[in-house]
Amino acid sequence: MRRALIAAMPLALAGGITACDDDQPSAGPSAAGPSTPGSTGRDSVAPAAPASGFPSLRVTAVVAGLDHPWDVKPIGHGRLLVTERDRARLSVVANGHRHTVAYPSRTVWVSGETGLMGLAVDPRFRTNHRVYLCQGGTLPDGGHDVHVTAWRLNVAERKVTRIRTLVGGFPTSTGRHGGCRLLVARNGALVVGTGDAAIGTNPRDLTSYGGKTLRLNRFTGKPWPGNRWADADSEVQRYVHTWGHRNVQGLAQRADGSLWSVEHGSDRDDEVNLLRNGADYGWNPVPGYDESVPMTDPSLPGHQVEARWSSGSPTLATSGADWLPDRIASGWGSYRGTLAVAALKASRLLFMKFDGTGRLRWVKAPDALTHHGRLRSVTTLPGGDVLVTTDNGNGQDRILRVRPQS
Predict the structure, then answer these.
(1) Which DSSP letter does residue 52 get?
(2) For residue 39, what pLDDT band results from cuts at 50, 70 and 90?
(3) Residue 168: how many CA atoms within 13 Å on its side-chain side?
(4) Which tens digits make up the pLDDT trace of 83-104?
(5) Which of 63, 155, 194, 384 sits at a 20 to 30 Å CA gap from 75?
């Protein structure tokens, strides 16, 4: 099924954006207006965003001097835990100051888009101090993988102690398409988004961790018992929640409990997907690694799930995402209940409105978030403000705090 764009691509945004690889430099901020291209995965065109009801946004820097911060999460009392991909550095930020957490950075394999990446904080952190990290690693035979490990942060928040590797052996090549977003779902499962390692056969191979979302027990590392193939002969297949992905960079859970992913496209379609247990999302770049094929190819055997939003061409390099609070008192006005999605090359934050059935209603990219370069991760704080990390490199990156202004 061919997708229809919901709005024309602004020329200022289109210039210089041709592919969605993470390492490509940003096209830079643009003066493009509030509408952003995308498609619904259906033949209809989504209506434009409403003309009013949007509060102005105040954007302030929480901390500066970071280098490719990949993820950030609150750990209570205004403190934040942060990963930096290329420095393989774990930090705590409090009152605008950063201190390094003792973490075995030397064990992290850093190459291309792979390094110290996804972060999740246990819902019981106040009592168990557990955190989860996804990183590149070096295997005993000299090869490499990507894996997820549980750690305990000490009371002084100065060092972490390894508890166990929960799941590993994710495929790698040059470091391209390394994934790796983490989310602790409200049912307790640890959800992991992986990349296909730029190896064309991985996304549709149910015995490969590449190009999947996985679900597992965050304490034991065992496959989540509700997974479709929890009883499969293949140990890898038991972990698979969804398959047929290219490079999952964002995971978010909506208030209704539904799980959503954000995915880097090639040169034609970034995607936001509503995840269904056992579903196929249709990426099949074979033979070789043919990036001209559709992100969701309906000609494949079986049923492929269409994206709930896709960028069309050119792509925006979408990355991390989180849902904004849906409560009226949050102050977000017409933004409330939207999915906020960071874009790297497009250098903006996209607010996507979906109805209760998951159908796209509109997309808006406010000007206040178009002046900070590449944006990587999005984290909604308990009070309703949003944290966004920049991804410009050279020690120039920041964590931004976004709040609505009444």
Answers:
(1) S
(2) low
(3) 19
(4) 999 999 999 999 999 999 999 9
(5) 194
Number of helices and strands in the chain (H, E): 3, 24
Contact 20, 285 (CB under 8 A): no
In the chain, the amino acid numbered 218 is: R
pLDDT at 38: 54
Distance between CA 37 and CA 49 in Å, rounded? 12
Nearest-angstrom CA–CA distance, 265 and 19: 8
Per DSSP (E only), the strands in 67-180 are 69-76, 79-84, 89-94, 97-100, 116-121, 130-138, 144-153, 160-170
What is the rounded distance in angstroms from the CA atom of residue 406 to the CA atom of residue 404? 7
Closest CA to 87 of 400, 398, 396, 395: 395
CB-neighbour burial class of residue 277 (10 A; exposed 0-12, middle 13-18, buried 19+) = middle
Interatomic CA distance for residues 249 and 247, integer angstroms: 6
Non-local CB neighbours of 370 within 8 Å, separated by 6+ positions: 29, 30, 31, 32, 347, 348
The region of weakest confidence among 18-27, 337-346, 387-396 is: 18-27
The phi and psi torsions of 14 (rounded to 5 degrees) equal -70, -30
Position 207: which residue type? Answer: T
Residues 6+ apart with CB under 8 A from 381: 74, 387
Residue 65 to residues 5, 93, 158, 379: CA-CA distances in angstroms? Answer: 38, 12, 19, 19
Mean pLDDT computed over every residue of the chain? 90
- Cis omega (within 30 of 0) on the bond before 20? no
Rg (CA), the chain: 19
Instruction: Answer whether residue 21 shows pLDDT above 60.
Output: no
Which position has the higher pLDDT, 76 or 329? 76
Structure tokens at 277: 């247990």
Calculate what percentage of the chain has a pLDDT beyond 70: 88
Q: Which residue has the higher pLDDT, 313 or 380?
A: 380
- The tokens for 205 are 């191979």
